[in-house]
Structures
1.
Amino acid sequence: SVIRAGSYTDELLKTAKSIASPGRGILAIDESNATCGKSQLQMERSSWTVCKMRILYPGIKVDKGLVPLPGSNNESWCQGLDGLASRSAEYYKQGARFAKWRTVVSIPCGPSALAVKEAAWGLARYAAISQDNGLVPIVEPEILLDGDHPIERTLEVAERVWAEVFYYLAENNVVFEGILLKPSMVTPGAEHKEKASPETIAKYTLTMLKRRVPPSVPGIMFLSGGQSEAEATLNLNAMNQSPNPWHVSFSYARALQNTVLKTWQGRPENIEAAQKALLVRAKANSLAQLGKYSA
Ligand code: 13P
């Protein structure tokens, strides 16, 4: 299967391993215009000036968004495979070294077997195409936090989703050493009556990963998915209290940006304070990646 990724294999392995190295994570600033609006885009550009000295590898979102999945239970599928090879080749030329494709799975909507299969197949096709063009694919089936279900139900769904994702990744001859995962943490649904502690979330999430993710995968870069900044950091820290087979880290958007955006408020005079706020969150999550964060 290593032959599948062609001339880029060595570089893919090196890129994935460098991103997944001690203390490092990803600042996700790839929201669509509809999600973040013009003002956030401006802030993100100025955050980039703060961050670029430290960026090892730029990455790019390559999916074309979610649309309704006919025949499902009001679920969606992720577009973007058409033309992906030529777009990816162009992104590589422009300097990108990793890619992201976000699809979602909804627990309250089922999830239906059709939606899970479509999500897994799309991710696997995207991953193979990315590797063929020198981009390390971030594989992200986001299991949405919505719902009032207990943590056991999230575990059950996550196990099902990741089983299918790895089945199709293997079927598409994706090189596991040259991918990164972006899972949701295993938590109770956002509307569940009880909150779970960071230790419980770490225990369930690591159980899921150990059952489903081969140790050849170098990095697990969690999304924050609507958790508060503090929760996302504490949960990550709890997962790094004992050794893992992988580099367990973050690829947060909201949990790195919420305070930044509140501080900034669209005013030029607040930019410096907002940049400082970004560095505070980045540092906290870097420590959490090392298991050394204390509130
Ligand atoms: P959140 O951390 O806000 O969930 O976003 C991460 C991300 O990039 C989702 O694709």
Note: The chain has a mean pLDDT of 92.
2.
Amino acid sequence: MSVQTATSRTEVPEEISAVNLVDTKTYLEHDMDAYWRRLRADHPLYWHPPVDGKPGFWVVSRYADVMALYRDNQRLTSEKGNVLVTLLAGGDSAAGQMLAVTDGRRHKDLRNVMLKAFSPRALSKVAALVRVNARRMIADAVRRGEGDFAAEVASVIPLTTVGGLLGVPVKDHAYLLGLTKSSLSSDEADQAPEEAFLARNEILLYFSDLVAERRADPQDDVITTLTRSEINGVPLTDQDIVFNCYSLILGGDETSRLTMIDSLYTLSREPEQWKRLKEGSVTLESATEETLRWATPAMNFGRTALVDVEIAGGTIKAGDVVTLWNTSANRDESVFDHPYVLDLGRTPNKHITFGYGPHFCLGAYLARVEVKEMLDALRTFTRGVELTGEPRRIHSNLMTGMSTLPVRFLPDEAGLATADS
Ligand code: HEM
């Protein structure tokens, strides 16, 4: 059996049309590499049929097309949502206030305000904190010998990083981590959608309180900077600040955590690449970029077309939702040599893990620092790592990765001796 796409009118075989990209189970049950290869080759603009009472949407899988659509914030908008859950629900209540779902002049102005808050001074302070944290946590984990790398290291570093930048008190980090973990994805298969909704609301409430505290008692942190920021002479409202704190904590926590977990998992299975990292025959910078390409924790983002857009031999009609698949673009064989091979020395490596264009990830610098410091600490303090059990995968149609990673480290005593220096 085959079905027709909406406007490109190409035949779609059942092995494609049967894959439901909205269902989180799909990503655990299907060979998604084979699926994306097939879409890139034969159906670069594919109409995903409506499922579970939600509207259908376009799926774009080739690197060049994904880039072209990310770049185009004139004919496409993020203001009706940028992730499947809001796009298919018809909108995002933070549109026009939260950076990622704001476009036009307001987006430019807000992005400039946030970039100022991410000043080189603020960033270098946080980067130094990341290095200290990564070295301490990884040295401790290696000394313990065995444990869950996800819970003990990868969960702590990103939240401490964004928390440090925003000025979230350390005593609240564990509470926020519990909430961010169930906001976008779930460790459990059967988490009710209301739970994610409640978790997101609790984060918003938490930041409302913190913004009020910073207005009363200013500190040297991003929230305080935002309370003093204005656009065209108008100060940011509490709600503007709260939405953007929310977006920083969600944007900065889960993605980095999943990348760290994935990279250790991958290194445990790729002894030749681990050797290159350990011996220093690849730079930390290229290893970081390849790790980011390999993990691609944010599988997709999306837009809504404002006018008809011609792409990949078809037409996205005004009003249609289109999804851009980083997961597929980062394995596009027309851009990356042997894309399914991990090569820590890969250059060039123009992966699309952080998106592209006007909404390019605001936290890319920090995320790179986190991954780089993690790789540096691992290669210094350990001779290698072995899995001691099967990791658990997360359930999401936005993010991909693992929520647990049970491992045993082989300590490098000479390296460990430098840990406290
Ligand atoms: C935007 C990925 C880490 C904050 C984005 C986008 C992607 C992305 C793909 C584009 C979304 C779109 O076009 O709709 C990632 C990945 C990360 C990461 C893979 C880690 C490996 C961070 C961190 C922060 C952050 C650490 C904060 C400190 C943001 C913000 C935006 C964004 C605020 C919206 C930018 C805008 O709309 O102008 N991120 N991110 N991200 N990211 Fe990240």
Note: The longest strand covers residues 300-305.
